[in-house]
Design a protein that fits this description.
This protein is an alpha/beta fold. The strands form three sheets. The protein has a seven-stranded mixed sheet with strand order 2-8-7-6-5-3-4, with helices on both faces. A four-stranded antiparallel sheet has the order 9-10-13-12, with helices on one face. It is globular and about 55 Å long. It starts with about 25 loop residues before the first strand and ends with a helix. Bound molecules: 4'-deoxy-4'-aminopyridoxal-5'-phosphate. 4'-deoxy-4'-aminopyridoxal-5'-phosphate (PMP) binds next to helix 3. The site of 4'-deoxy-4'-aminopyridoxal-5'-phosphate has 12 residues, from helix 3.
Amino acid sequence: MKWEDNVRKVVPYVAGEQPQKKGIIKLNTNECPYPPSPKVEGRMKQMDYQDLRLYPEFSEKTMLSDMLVSYHGIGKEQIFIGVGSDDVLSMAFLTFFNSDKPVFFPDITYSFYDVWAEVYGIPYEVKPLDDDFCIRREDYLKENGGIVFPNPNAPTGVFMDVSEIEEIIAANRDVVVIVDEAYIDFGGTSALPLINKYDNLLIVRTFSKSRAMAGARIGYAMGNERLIRYLNDVKYSVNSYTMNRMALELGAACMEDDAYFKEICSKIIATRERTAKELTALGFTFPPSYGNFIFAAHNKVKAQDIFEKLKKHDIYVRYWNKPRIDNYLRITIGTDEQMDALFAALREILA
Ligand code: PMP
């Protein structure tokens, strides 16, 4: 059809499956296996449906914003809130990556980055990780139109020391550097303190993993107030009311319960360490993970075989048929009971 000549054609990002079947052990999208804080449940029950008649407040004027500002000890003008960190990152790509020079990110990384670059027509170059899946800093010292990477990286779980991140930022003062800290609460150290030293650094966070609220869709970014102003200008040129009333309320309730947040993070870390030992005993190798997942390859059996056989046991993990990582499985850390079921299934499959 003729109209198709002028259609913006893209190859979309493919998210992990969301099987609706009951009883599935879902270790494929790095969700939290625990429910959100009881405070979230309490707030949900208090919400009045009649309020839905009204537009929500502008997200940077909400209680959620105030709570994040005080939690992180940043200025009121240093925060941007969006519909999950995907929305925040997408807006950041649109706002900051507007150069003829290529944006740099790793070859093995969050597979949404190249999709945003494509849809917004941003030139980009991927920089291969080394054989241990570490970022090679020297690759990021050449002229570029911006830099983005997760820390810890996904899907590898590899964490890069903040001092090394600082080297990259310091060498790239003329472009914006985005550090996607989706998984920072599982043992890594945040680069957040650097936002006051470097006006070109944007830190992105999410409620989807460590705060157990993937379904509420809350993400945020922190950075120099000029960066945040530019980000808001673009956001308010696309959609003024991205955050719905419920998410804003429930996010604030979640922030009230720091003890619960710390408790679930430490439970996941403990289960991850246990999982690492079990997987090693089963013949898997993997880089040390600082995320709520482990990226593992088996020494004999192909990842794709294991992936498919686990599905038959109603256990879903993530597999990508892509160069360099096609023999790896990314296994989200679930509860101890879920992981026990995984180990039992693996023992059977690998026997
Ligand atoms: N960044 C990374 C590295 C991720 O793995 C994810 C989860 N898919 C996201 C961002 C987006 O998460 P959300 O939109 O749920 O905040």
